[in-house]
Design goal:
Layout lengths: L2 H16 L6 H13 L2 H27 L6 E8 L4 E2 L2 E10 L5 E9 L4 E6 L4 E2 L4 E7 L4 E10 L7 E11 L3 E11 L3 E2 L1 E6 L3 E3 L2 E11 L7 E7 L4 E6 L8 E4 L7 E10 L7 E11 L2 E4 L3 E8 L5 E3 L6 E2 L4 E7 L7 E9 L6 E4 L6 E7 L10 E12 L5 E5 L3 E6 L3 E7 L21 E10 L5 E10 L3 E9 L5 E3 L3 E9 L9 E9 L11 E12 L5 E6 L2 E2 L12
Parallel strand pairs: 2-11, 13-21, 23-30
Antiparallel strand pairs: 1-3, 3-8, 4-7, 4-9, 5-8, 6-7, 9-10, 12-14, 14-18, 14-29, 15-17, 15-19, 16-18, 19-20, 19-21, 22-24, 24-27, 25-26, 25-28, 28-29, 28-30, 31-32, 32-37, 33-36, 33-38, 34-37, 35-36, 38-39, 38-40
Helix pairs in contact: 1-2, 2-3
Protein name: DUF11 domain-containing protein
Organism: Candidatus Uhrbacteria bacterium CG10_big_fil_rev_8_21_14_0_10_50_16
Keywords: Membrane, Transmembrane, Transmembrane helix
Length: 567
């Protein structure tokens, strides 16, 4: 054989044994050296032998792989009802068929559930709850069976629920194997249903009442449910029958099977909007340590302009609680929206005047006297709101529409109290001298003044009083606020100064001081006065108004006094 032919055979052998640098290099390297030493016939024989060994190895591996019969057990699943419901009862049916052609020994099927699956029953007599394993036993070629798993899936609507089974088996004596199969399902709706009731159409400025109904249609208790509400930007929520958290979420501690909860809410649309109003409610429930989102309910309602524009003229001066203020209410011509039984009333006042408007409504005005509410808190203001009530001709639905309100600042009220004592409440003697007083003999009483229940900050607060007949100032005193009490011989003055709103913390500004009375013969047998014209004045920082209040005369009458006089 020629040299080129010889070299080509050697090159072929080398190429064959160096492909991929396989672990068989310990065998291929000696074979390559053998090819270099011997003739071409021996070399062809060696190449054939090597190829046969490779094919044999592949055949053995293929045979071993094909010999595992567990790969030929057909496992299929179906869930009922076909629409998986989060929180609802469901049944997972798993069927198995031995298509391997071999007898499988000691077959078992171990179940694994989603994290928050509540198992109810497994329809198989050999199910072991402690291991979640079913003992199927021997499975002949062609044998089949069906296993039903009953329970409740809890999870997000649209989320994934994953079950798995592990098939264990033996064959050909002591050979064993296992196979894992996964089944995935997606809840399409929830057993926690939600419904909303809203009018089909809203009027701009309408005051409306809506309701949300939450119901547990499942067979298990929801430990905690929640509804997160998203209201339109042009909607103001005013009240709800169930308290909301700051993030506009209602929390329901538990909902039993078939229990229904209705939440009522009220609010109003902005007056000058013709946009669609979308109300969105997102229910969820807590199971274990996780919260699961359920079907979201979203309702969009169209709006129309109000049929009547109504307003109240601005209030130009500060208001006083309990004192009437005169306002003017105005309304415009009716639009094309058909309405009937039209009434107009004013809210925000102790008295709420109401009157009827003839239809079709024509523009007009009316002057009314309103008594402001006292309000609450500090820096108070009162809002008077006109409300138009009518019935829509088309639907006969009653509607209330809020008009343009007007607001006034409320000047603070003040409580000024005064009394005199000879004894303390514990019976200790404060005064001096005879009791009851005697003609032409001095008796000393202590007078007390209190300022409280103000809801706006005050400045320049002064309390003054006139000394009554035969009463003199005794320079003994105590004050909790201000510069003290001074007297010019005929009157006295207590300069309180600046007084922050007292109603927020219950503060009382107090002054006490001694007064001496030497009654005349004509005063004996009467109740002589100690102070008259007791008056407080101050400047209301919130409204800029001057406040004044005068109380009754402070006398020597001390009905609550009791004690023993020690001269």
């Amino acid at each position: 054989m020629s040299a080129p032919h010889k070299n080509s055979l050697i090159h072929l052998a080398r190429t064959g044994v160096h492909v991929a640098r396989q672990p068989g290099r310990l065998l291929s390297v000696p074979l390559a050296k053998r090819l270099e030493k011997h003739g071409w016939k021996h070399r062809l024989l060696d190449i054939g032998t090597m190829s046969a060994l490779v094919l044999l190895s592949l055949g053995i591996a293929f045979t071993l792989f094909r010999s595992d019969p567990g790969t030929h057990v057909l496992l299929t699943s179906v869930v009922a009802p076909t629409e998986v419901v989060s929180g609802g009862d469901s049944t997972l049916a798993i069927s198995y068929t031995n298509e391997s052609g071999k007898l499988l020994k000691d077959v078992t099927l171990t179940l694994a559930y989603p994290p928050y699956f509540v198992l109810q029953t497994v329809d198989h007599p050999a199910f072991h709850l402690d291991t979640n394993t079913i003992e199927i036993g021997d499975l002949a070629p062609g044998a089949n069976g069906l296993i039903k798993i009953h329970g409740v899936m809890f999870g997000d609507v649209g989320g994934e629920q994953t079950f798995s089974t592990t098939l264990g088996y033996g064959w050909d004596g002591n050979r064993t194997g296992s196979r894992v199969q996964t089944y995935r399902f997606m809840p399409q709706r929830s057993a926690l249903t939600i419904d909303s009731q809203l009018p089909d159409r809203l009027v701009s400025g309408q005051r409306l009442s809506g309701s949300i109904t939450l119901q547990n249609t499942g067979s298990l208790t929801f430990p905690e449910a929640a509804i997160h509400a998203s209201f339109p930007n042009n909607f103001t929520l005013t009240s709800t029958s169930l308290k909301q958290r700051k993030d506009t979420t209602w929390i329901v501690p538990t909902i039993e099977p078939n229990e229904e909860l209705v939440i009522i809410y009220t609010g109003s649309l902005a007056l000058n909007t013709n946009e669609e109003a979308t109300f969105t409610f997102e229910p969820s429930f807590v199971f274990g340590d996780e919260r699961f989102a359920q079907d979201t309910l979203s309702e969009t309602v169209s709006t129309v302009p109000p049929p009547i524009a109504v307003s109240i003229d601005p209030i130009k001066s500060a208001l006083t609680s309990g004192k009437e203020v005169t306002v003017t209410v105005r309304w415009g011509d009716q639009t094309d929206l058909g309405i009937e039984r039209v009434k107009l009333h004013i809210e925000g006042a102790v008295n709420q005047p109401e009157w009827t408007l003839d239809t079709p409504v024509q523009a007009g005005s009316r002057t009314v006297n309103l008594v402001p509410h006292a309000g609450s808190g500090t820096n108070r203001q009162v809002t008077f709101t006109p409300i138009v009530d009518f019935v829509l001709n088309e639907t006969q639905e009653p509607v209330s529409v809020i008009g343009e309100p007007t607001t006034g600042l409320l000047t603070t009220s003040v409580v000024l109290g005064g009394f005199a004592r000879y004894f303390t409440s514990a019976g200790d003697q404060l005064g001096r001298g005879p009791l009851p007083p005697r003609a032409n003999e001095a008796t000393i009483y202590w007078a007390f003044l209190n300022v409280q229940d103000t809801f706006n900050d005050l400045t320049d607060v002064v309390v003054t009083a006139d000394l009554a007949n035969n009463v003199t100032w005794v320079n003994r005193q105590s004050v909790t606020k201000g510069a003290g009490v001074i007297s010019n011989g005929t009157s006295l003055s207590w300069n309180v100064g600046t007084l922050p709103a007292t109603i927020s913390n219950g503060t009382v500004a107090a002054a006490s001081f001694a007064l001496s009375i030497t009654p005349s013969n004509a005063q004996i047998g009467t109740v002589p006065a100690l102070l008259s014209n007791v008056r407080i004045t101050g400047h209301d920082v919130w409204t800029g108004q001057t406040i004044t209040k005068t109380i009754n005369t402070i006398t020597t009458q001390t009905e609550s006094d009791s004690g023993r006089v020690e001269h």
